[in-house]
Design goal:
Blueprint (H helix, E strand, L loop, with lengths): L18 H7 L4 H12 L31 H8 L3 H14 L3 H7 L5 H12 L2 E3 L11 H8 L8 E4 L5 E5 L6 H10 L7 E4 L1 H11 L1 H15 L11 H20 L1 H26 L1 H4 L20 E7 L6 H9 L8 E8 L3 H8 L7 E6 L7 H9 L6 E5 L4 E2 L3 H11 L4 E5 L2 E3 L6 H23 L11 E4 H6 L10 H11 L3 E4 L4 E3 L5 H22 L3 H46 L5 H28 L8 H28 L18 H7 L1
Parallel strand pairs: 1-4, 3-4, 5-6, 5-8, 6-7, 10-13, 11-14
Antiparallel strand pairs: 2-3, 8-12, 9-14, 10-12
Length: 687
């Protein structure tokens, strides 16, 4: 795709005029100005330039008859060097997908977009421009935001060339070719002011032109529209007062009644452990009586129009995994003319950008560079990139993910069978290096319980579903209506799942998995788990700003789930760091010291019960959620559980401290061979 500033004719590089020339050159001839308004605001079907009521508009499927009278495609065949078989196959695919034929030709690699646009410019007698300068576009930041999010394709955009003349930039690859030709034939006086450009070049230029406004929306959009549900404030004023009183009261009570305070703390921890364990035991029903699989062994795309699917992948310092990522995304089954993949990178992440640019990308894969700003978080980057998407459905992946090839197909089929209330589908995450170390083994054990049992059970009972951080499939309109991701929340997934429920939407799970690797090094694991726990704290504090409103929005069952999965889990985990030492101390006192008090006996019993309930629930749901072929060595999991929970407790306390010191800091989890040693034998068997 054209990256050069060279053009076919003189004066084709679009530059901004001098300030003194801006006012005069921005004035368009009346006819040209009127047509530009029509282009921008009244698109017809299949990317038609204008909406002419009463006129017959040619659709992508109807254009398959290339030899019909007046069609430009026979000449385009010659200019592009296409044979009849290639054209017929592309036209047939385009008709089935509801796409334009040229999009199918470009997506299929038969021609590049630059080759198509150059040929169309030659055929219609207009200029071709290989590169577009953002400074020359006559468009505001608000208009840039609206244009990039259009489902119908890019409209014509006015610009100023290097001579100070107003020109009209058109991307013919996203417009009906015959209708474009007919329109220009009726407007012969416009031809000198029309320039054909590649859609990707024009999108990049529009994105650069509107980057400031889109960045503002990415950062401030949620706190402006739903300030009460934004984590930009760690604590509201009322919450701060309550926390202050509780801490002051706790210190005073510890001084006056230390044993009573300890007993109350242990009772609270015991209640939390019981609730967490009961929820996990109930969720086992999803494993013991699973839902039937949605997909057969082989899946064919249905022979009817399919929507545009947008795939967003946030990358930061991920140069090492770029080749693996592109290979995995290339296996996704979806019509390439209806697929767009956005690789979302920070503009100063030069290493990752260089790794991507070293690979020749297909036309449906684009890079979105996020301007440097704070907070530097994944949700902010996703919010920025969402404004560049035109898909009706959006899915999020991480850099190390290897999604099942038919995952998009299964998600779309579920969406199509369901009503508009179904807003999100969560794909299960499967760890492929679970036997790399004891830590990755326990990580895989924990993931299995969450994605094979807990989340499917919540979805099947239409309860609130805290999403996982990747492989979330969204209806675009529901995602935007709920405010999308919170740029200040470091576990934006769980927060968004609760917010969707509060907005009246439903989330569920699918079966096609996404494969990824677990951390094998304790330091990497600790940073990742600290971020997760800090995000859970943020999420709970945000949604508990008004407990009555939360209860009213999601109902009693989902309210209990929020308390059990978030608050009770955090309390149970944070208390573990005290329970093991006090259990050992109590055992020694009971063995060697006479005159143990009643308080000490009660505390010791609660200590034992807490650990038994917590460990038993963890082991039970984890064991039965594992595939039968992996249920081996239960004694190993039991042996590792106390150490793993102690590390969880350290991460939770570290998260609480970090929430106080650096609430919006995103601790990066590295991926790649330097951090992870995957079990290639098992991965190959499972994939």
């Amino acid at each position: 795709m054209g990256a050069s500033s060279q053009a076919d004719g003189p004066g084709d590089t679009v530059l901004a005029p001098k300030p003194s020339e801006r006012f005069e050159t921005a004035r368009l001839p009346r006819s040209l100005a009127e047509q530009t308004v029509a282009f921008a605001h009244r698109p017809g079907p299949h990317g038609s330039l204008i909406d002419r009521s009463g006129d017959r508009t040619t659709s992508g499927e109807e254009m398959s008859g290339a030899s019909k009278a007046g069609s430009l495609w026979p000449m385009m065949h010659i200019l592009l060097g296409l044979n009849a078989e290639t054209w017929e196959r592309a036209a047939r695919k385009a008709g089935l997908a509801g796409a334009l034929p040229q999009r199918e030709l470009i997506a299929g690699g038969h021609v590049s977009e630059a080759e198509f646009v150059r040929a169309a410019a030659r055929l219609m007698g207009v200029r071709f421009l290989a590169d577009v300068r953002a400074e020359g576009l006559i468009i505001t930041g608000e208009q840039s935001h609206q244009v990039l999010g259009r489902r119908e394709g890019l409209p014509a955009v006015t610009a100023v060339d290097s001579t100070g003349r107003c020109v009209l930039l058109i991307a013919p690859s996203e417009l009906d070719l015959d209708e474009l030709g007919a329109f220009l034939d009726r407007q012969r006086d416009m031809l000198k002011g029309v320039i054909f450009v590649c859609a990707d070049c024009l999108r990049r230029a529009i994105g650069r032109r509107g980057s400031r406004e889109m960045l503002r929306r990415a950062i401030a959009g949620l706190k402006e529209t739903l300030p009460q549900l934004s984590a930009h404030l760690v604590l509201t004023g009322r919450q701060g007062v309550v926390v202050g009183f509780l801490l002051a009261g706790l210190v005073q009570c510890l001084v006056l009644w230390p044993m009573e305070v300890a007993l109350a703390a242990y009772i609270l921890a015991f209640a939390c452990c019981v609730l967490c364990t009961l929820m996990r035991v109930v969720a086992l029903t999803e494993v013991l009586w699973p839902r039937q699989p949605e997909l057969p062994a082989e899946v064919e795309m249905p022979e009817e129009g399919v929507p545009v699917y947008s795939v967003l992948v946030a990358l930061y310092r991920e140069a090492e995994v770029v080749p693996q990522l592109l290979t995995a995304l290339g296996r996704l089954v979806w019509p390439r003319s209806r697929l767009e993949i956005k690789l979302v990178c920070e503009e100063d992440d030069h290493e990752t950008l260089a790794a991507i640019r070293s690979i020749e990308l297909r036309d449906y894969v684009q890079v979105v560079e996020v301007p440097s700003s704070t907070p530097r978080t994944k949700p902010k980057a996703l919010r920025y990139a969402l404004q560049h998407c035109r898909g009706d459905f959006v899915v999020i992946y991480d850099a190390e993910d290897r999604p099942h090839p038919y995952q998009l197909v299964e998600a779309w089929r579920r969406f199509r069978r369901s009503d508009q209330i179904l807003a999100c589908l969560q794909a299960p995450l499967v760890i492929t290096n679970g036997w790399g170390s004891w830590l990755s083994r326990m990580f895989a054990f924990e993931y299995s319980a969450l994605f094979a049992a807990m989340l499917p059970w919540l979805g099947s009972h239409r309860l609130v579903l805290p999403l996982g951080g990747t492989s979330n499939h969204f209806r675009r309109h529901a995602l935007e209506a709920s405010g999308a991701w919170d740029p200040y929340n470091v576990t934006e997934d769980a927060d968004l799942g609760i917010r969707l429920a509060r907005m009246g939407y439903h989330s569920d799970t699918i079966l096609s998995p996404t494969y990824e690797d677990a951390p094998t090094r304790p330091d990497v694991w600790l940073r990742q788990r600290t971020r997760w726990f800090k995000g859970w704290l943020q999420t709970w504090l945000v949604h508990m700003r008004d407990p009555r409103a939360l209860f009213r929005d999601i109902g009693a069952g989902s309210f209990l789930v929020v308390q059990g999965l978030v608050f009770c889990t955090l309390i149970a985990v944070m208390s573990n760091v005290f329970m093991v030492p006090t259990l050992l101390y109590g055992a020694l006192r009971h063995s060697f010291v006479e005159g143990v008090t009643a308080y000490e006996r009660i505390l010791f019993a609660l200590n034992v019960a807490n650990l038994l309930f917590g460990y038993a629930g963890f082991l039970t749901i984890g064991w039965y959620s594992l595939p039968p072929r992996k249920r081996e060595g239960l004694w190993r999991y039991a042996l590792y559980t106390p150490g793993y929970w102690f590390m969880l407790s350290l991460a939770a306390w570290r998260a609480a401290w970090q929430l106080y010191r650096k609430p919006f800091y995103w601790e990066k989890t590295p991926h790649g061979r330097k951090q992870i040693q995957p079990d290639t034998k098992r991965q190959g068997a499972e994939g």
